[in-house]
Specification:
alpha+beta, six-stranded mixed beta sheet, disordered N terminus
Length: 707
């Protein structure tokens, strides 16, 4: 269900009274931005009346009761429209009485749905968050029931049979409607439909059980202080102390990662890695075997040969053979580099621990050791060069110059917390309003704990030609300025902020006519590509200097040698790291594309093949503690690498020689961002690149910048 739009086709580009154009250059930008924020604060105090955003139907600051009432109205309206569509005689179906009502319902209702759902992520009120979660459950249940309406399916199918398309995007939209109905079994007999729903419920139950078993695992290990040599005193203080002064190390990821990365004692690393790899070994192996069998049965019932074919039908990769070829090409192309990287690590272990054999448990520790020796990088000290407002002004500068955008901060707009800022985004040439975004940067109690971008309203064009603008929300978890000391970002937070702004631009620059294809509603394999493209600006000297400045003297950006080190550090031991990820991706793809697979033997075989002969740790069974293949990424674990590979191809081929090349930036905006989900993603990338996307640039980058 999606968004409501009464917006005008174009809106004035003139700055509104009380708005502030965001400053956009280095140190001067930060000073101007600070002044801008002061003006905004004064204006807010002068005028307590909050402004609505013209064309935005997302509602802010609803009470708990208002949220629940709105959810009921959303459901009632949706039922009314679906009933009307379903009642159309099959010989009277037209675009206007079948497809247009469903498309406009999606567009009109999405911001209202988000008005109910988003408060659970950002509201300061527990009552509001609770009501929001309750409303989401009600709306989700209704959406699920709509997707199973046989009467509506028959009418849409009848329209499709007439072949009276309004254009290629409308045709794609109708095909999506039919596909969604049929993925719920509506093209099957009633008996088979019931079986589809039974199997879906069984899959959900098994997935939940697999993850719950891991969450419930309370295994821990006891070590004396000498056995934890190398771990910081501050970390040791966080560990529970038990009898005889022993330290209790749990198998939670933050404990395991610290030990494997920092502990100097090989026996300790090995024991922790082995115990971690044995979690839920028997119970989850059985659960995963049952889950995969049920998934295959579910897919076959819907007409697919296996579950991977069902999952990939919605994705850019399309076929399991394509995914396997992609992963194997990446792995084999990086094997020589991985062997050289492994030789470096083995030699370092020999120097430190003698003739003890090198195992997978040693990878993190010796990678970190080499990086400390090779790179002059103190990431803790580096954050002093990234005051949050300076980074933000630099990001605005890059986005403006690259994509010809203009950002205006809006004073006096209604927000759910005083920290939240709202921006209008205009096309720099025409002055057309492209959309809005909310920026909720700082951590607070009750707020969603991850960094992400949430669509609040999708762009679309109504049947009468009226354009609805997109609206986005960027949520992050940064620390606020304290006692006059500016908020400073870790380098990882800088990269994350660039990434999320990539999603903001992706959402706001979309020009699809249907809300279904707007902004972030694109192919799952391609949705991360624009954000990953933008991450590259974090590793180039020009842009790093633009967004950095020592917090006590912002005219002093980070030094050239640090910029070079960051780029080399990015690719440090990248071949070995990728091979580890490819191993799990291959496992995930194979178990979901073939039946009657011996899961334990498959992992052993793949480990020996992919990991250059490094043996699996004795007694471990990674398949029992691999939640990504159990829930959320089943048959799709490859997708992160897929996005990274093609983002590298785009950046190196098109942007590398001109980081602020407006011509290339506008081509990216019009050819990649504008179509959204309205076109096939391979066609979109091929049109932009002038050829089909390739893995070769990614491979070359990893080799060029390796140690």
């Amino acid at each position: 269900m999606e968004s409501e739009g009464n917006s005008e086709k174009k809106m004035s580009s003139k700055p509104k009274k009380g708005s502030n154009i965001v400053p956009l250059t280095g140190a001067a930008a930060l000073l101007t931005l600070a002044a801008s924020l002061v003006i905004t604060a004064i204006n807010n105090r002068r005028n307590s009346k909050k402004k609505d955003l013209p064309g935005c139907n997302f509602r802010v600051n609803l009470s708990a009761s208002e949220i629940l009432k709105l959810a009921d109205r959303i459901i009632a309206k949706s039922k009314e429209v679906h009933d009307a569509v379903a009642s159309v005689p099959l010989d009277k179906v037209t675009y206007k009485n079948v497809i247009s009502p469903l498309a406009e319902l999606e567009a009109q209702q999405f911001p209202l749905v988000q008005s109910c759902v988003v408060p659970k992520l950002v509201s300061t009120s527990y009552k509001v968050r609770k009501a929001s979660a309750e409303a989401e459950k009600k709306i989700d249940a209704h959406v699920s029931s709509c997707s199973k309406r046989e009467d509506a399916y028959r009418v849409v199918k009848a329209f499709a049979a007439k072949g009276e398309w309004m254009g290629p995007e409308a045709r794609r939209y109708v095909q999506c409607l039919i596909r969604d109905f049929e993925r719920n079994g509506l093209n099957l007999t009633a008996t088979k439909r019931e079986e589809v729903q039974r199997l879906r419920a069984q899959m959900d139950e098994l997935s939940f059980q697999y993850v719950q078993n891991l969450n419930d695992d309370s295994t821990s290990l006891l070590f004396c202080e000498n056995e934890l040599a190398g771990l910081p005193t501050q970390f040791l203080k966080t560990l529970e102390k038990v009898e005889n002064g022993m330290f209790k190390v749990t198998l939670k990821s933050h404990h395991v990662a610290a030990v494997l990365e920092l502990c100097k004692i090989g026996r300790t690393r090995r024991l922790v890695a082995m115990t971690y790899g044995k979690r839920c070994a028997k119970v989850n192996l059985s659960v995963l075997e049952d889950l995969v069998q049920v998934r295959h049965k579910f897919a076959r019932l819907l007409g697919y040969s296996n579950y991977a074919e069902y999952a990939l039908n919605l994705r850019m990769a399309k076929t399991s053979s394509k995914v396997l070829e992609f992963l194997e090409d990446i792995s084999s192309s990086l094997s020589d580099l991985a062997k050289r990287e492994l030789a470096v690590l083995k030699e370092l272990k020999k120097q430190e621990e003698g003739e003890l054999s090198f195992g997978v448990e040693d990878l993190l520790y010796y990678v970190k050791n080499v990086e400390q020796q090779e790179f002059d990088l103190d990431l803790g000290a580096l954050k002093q060069y990234f005051p949050v407002n300076l980074v933000l002004s630099g990001i605005f500068k890059i986005l403006q110059d690259l994509f010809r955008l203009r950002f205006e901060q809006i004073a006096d707009s209604d927000v759910w917390h005083s920290d939240v800022r709202v921006f209008s985004v205009f096309d720099l040439s025409s002055g057309e309003l492209l959309g809005y975004f909310y920026l909720d940067m700082y951590t607070r109690e009750g707020k969603y704990g991850q960094t992400c971008v949430v669509a609040l309203q999708n762009g679309s064009v109504a049947f009468n030609g009226a354009r609805q603008v997109p609206v986005a929300l960027l949520i992050s978890q940064l620390q606020k300025d304290i006692g006059g000391i500016p908020s400073l970002l870790r380098f990882s937070e800088v990269v994350s902020l660039f990434h999320e702004f990539g999603h903001v631009v992706q959402h706001l620059c979309n020009c699809a006519s249907f809300a279904r294809f707007s902004g972030l509603r694109v192919d799952p394999d391609s949705v991360e590509i624009p954000a990953k493209v933008l991450e590259n600006w974090c590793y180039e000297s020009f842009s790093l200097k633009l967004i950095s400045g020592f917090h006590q003297d912002i005219t002093k950006p980070i030094k050239d040698e640090i910029c070079r080190s960051l780029k080399r550090w990015r690719y440090s031991f990248s071949a070995l790291k990728l091979k580890q990820e490819v191993l799990y991706c291959l496992f995930d793809q194979i178990i979901h594309s073939a039946e009657n697979v011996d899961i334990v033997e498959l992992f052993k075989h793949l480990h020996a093949k992919v990991m250059l002969g490094l043996p699996m740790l004795e007694g471990t069974n990674p398949a029992s503690c691999f939640p990504r293949c159990a829930i959320g990424y089943e048959a799709a674990c490859y997708s992160r690498i897929w996005s990274e590979v093609f983002a590298a191809d785009i950046f190196t081929s098109k942007f590398n020689d001109g980081l602020l090349n407006q011509s290339v930036g506008m081509q990216f905006r019009t050819k990649v961002l504008a179509p959204g989900g309205a076109k096939d993603p391979v066609e979109i990338l091929s049109d932009f690149l002038g050829r089909e996307p390739s893995i070769q640039t990614f491979i070359d980058n990893n080799i060029e910048f390796s140690l």
